[in-house]
C-alpha cells in the first residue's frame, strides 16, 4: 500500500498536527502549515484530524497509487489531475490501483494538501509523523520526497469506522487565498525596545511578503523601524535589535537591524538573539501559511481577550467540519 | 557576592495566546541562568495540565500552554509563585553532570568553510581563531585555544536547531571570551563546529546556516536521530540545560580515533554526576572549577 513518487514536486513533505514537548531542545512543532486545509483533507478522506497528509509547496508531485484509494486535495487552488483528467479540489476522489495523480500550476496561495484514507503511514518519531527537515527526523526519512520514494499509506478502513465521510467541503467553509490580508498580532515580548514610531510603523504599514518564506519563517519588506538607543546589556550583542539569546515564540515577529520583519512559523528556530516585538495569534497562523510572495499584509494589534475569542471561533469552525459538538 | 539573586523581579509578557515569556534579566549571568533553570525544573515537576513546552534559556524562560485548558492568568500566577520560591532559595544548587567533549581546534573543515565565507567576515584575512585572539587581546591562537578549554562551560540553553547547546564559561565576567558574530550569516557550517558569538560558545548539531565564529570541530555526535550510540539510547539529543562541559583538545590522530569509535558504535562521552553550587562558583571560580573537573578523573 503505497504511493510511488514519479516526480517529487518542489518541497513535498509528510505532516500531521505536529510534535510538541521538545521545543526546549530545539525541536520545533512542525506539522501542517495551513492546519485548517490539512484537516479538511483528512475529513474528506474519511480520517480523524490526526492522520498524516502530504504538504505540497508551489509545485505538486506526480505519483501513482498501487492500490484503490480515497484521496482529497485541499488548500491553495490548483488543478488536480487523475490520469491527465481534471478532477475537483475540496472533494473526495476515488482512485483505482495504477491511477496516476498530478497537478497543474498553482493559481494562488502557497501550499496544498493531499489527504488519503488511512493516512500517510510513516513511523511516528517523538509522537508525530511530521517532517522536521533541518533535524532530519520524522516524515519520509526525515526529508522532502524524492522521485522513486514509495510512500506508505495506512491500511486502516478509515478512522470514522462505518460513517460515510464528507463528499465535499462547502464553498462557505473553505479558506480564502487572498492577495491582501490582515493578520492579528499581540504586541509584547520586547516591544518596549522599539521607539513609539517604530511600533506605529509595524502596526500601521502595509507589508509585502518576500520570496524568503518557508516553513521556518516569512520575511516581509516595507519601511524601516527604529530601536530605542541603549547601552547593550552584557552578552546581548552590539546591534540595538539584539538581546541575550532567548526562546522564540512560534508566530513571533523579529526585526533584525530594524528592517524586513520575520514571522516565525511551525518549523521555527527555537531561540536566538533578536528581539521579538509581537506575536501572530494562533487563529491567524494559517493565514500566513496561505500567503504567496507579494501578498500585502497588515498586522492588526489585539489583546489576549480578542485572541482567545478568535481561537474559540476557529474551534467552532473545526467542530462544524467534523460534525462534533466539541 | 551576597545572594544568588539576578536583580529584582522578572518581567512577564505574552507571546501571543500560547506563549508566556519570562525575562529574568536583560544581561547574561550565571545567576540569571540558574534562576531560569530552577524555575523550569520546578514548573516541570508540577506536571501542569495545559503546559506543553518549558524552555529555559540564557536569562529567560519561555512556556507554551493551551489557553483552552489553562487560562493565561492562572499560568502566570503559578509561575510567579515559582519565581518567589526560587528567589527564597538560600543556597541554590543544581544536580547535573560534567561531560568531556573532545575538540579538534584549528581543524581543516572549519578553516575551509571560514575561507569560503570571508566576504561575510569583519576581517578578510586570516582565520576566525586569529580574529578571536586579537579581539580578546591575546598574543596567539594557541593562547586563545588554551583559554577556551582551560575552564569549563555551563550549558545555558539548548535550541536554535535540534540539540544545539549554548554555553557560558564559568569564569568572572572580565575573563569571558567575547567575539562578535559574523557580519552576515554563512549559508553553511559543518556539523559539530565549535562556534562562538558574543560571550556564548555553541556546538552546531547539524550542518546549516550560522553566524558564530568557528574555532574547531567536535569529534563525536551530539544529535543522533538514529540513536545508534549508547549515549543516545534514551533520547536523540545529548545536551540538557545545566550540563557542564569541559572541552578536551585532540589532534588529528585523536580525532580520527574517536571517529572510528563512533563508526563502530562504541564511543561514549566521559562524564560524571556533579552537584553545581552557584555561590561557590561565583566566590571562587578557579578553585571550584578544579574541583568539578576532578570528578572526571578515573571515569
TrEMBL record, chain A:
<dbReference type="GO" id="GO:0016740">
    <property type="term" value="F:transferase activity"/>
</dbReference>
<keyword id="KW-0067">ATP-binding</keyword>
<keyword id="KW-0547">Nucleotide-binding</keyword>
<dbReference type="InterPro" id="IPR052708">
    <property type="entry name" value="PxpC"/>
</dbReference>
<dbReference type="Pfam" id="PF02626">
    <property type="entry name" value="CT_A_B"/>
</dbReference>
<dbReference type="GO" id="GO:0016787">
    <property type="term" value="F:hydrolase activity"/>
</dbReference>
<keyword id="KW-0378">Hydrolase</keyword>
<dbReference type="InterPro" id="IPR003778">
    <property type="entry name" value="CT_A_B"/>
</dbReference>
<keyword id="KW-0808">Transferase</keyword>
<feature type="domain" description="Carboxyltransferase">
    <location>
        <begin position="24"/>
        <end position="317"/>
    </location>
</feature>
<dbReference type="GO" id="GO:0005524">
    <property type="term" value="F:ATP binding"/>
</dbReference>
<protein>
    <submittedName>
        <fullName>Biotin-dependent carboxyltransferase</fullName>
    </submittedName>
</protein>
<dbReference type="InterPro" id="IPR029000">
    <property type="entry name" value="Cyclophilin-like_dom_sf"/>
</dbReference>
UniProtKB/TrEMBL annotation, chain B:
<dbReference type="GO" id="GO:0016787">
    <property type="term" value="F:hydrolase activity"/>
</dbReference>
<keyword id="KW-0808">Transferase</keyword>
<dbReference type="InterPro" id="IPR010016">
    <property type="entry name" value="PxpB"/>
</dbReference>
<dbReference type="InterPro" id="IPR029000">
    <property type="entry name" value="Cyclophilin-like_dom_sf"/>
</dbReference>
<keyword id="KW-0378">Hydrolase</keyword>
<protein>
    <submittedName>
        <fullName>Carboxyltransferase domain-containing protein</fullName>
    </submittedName>
</protein>
<keyword id="KW-0547">Nucleotide-binding</keyword>
<feature type="domain" description="Carboxyltransferase">
    <location>
        <begin position="10"/>
        <end position="230"/>
    </location>
</feature>
<dbReference type="Pfam" id="PF02682">
    <property type="entry name" value="CT_C_D"/>
</dbReference>
<dbReference type="GO" id="GO:0005524">
    <property type="term" value="F:ATP binding"/>
</dbReference>
<dbReference type="GO" id="GO:0016740">
    <property type="term" value="F:transferase activity"/>
</dbReference>
<dbReference type="InterPro" id="IPR003833">
    <property type="entry name" value="CT_C_D"/>
</dbReference>
<keyword id="KW-0067">ATP-binding</keyword>
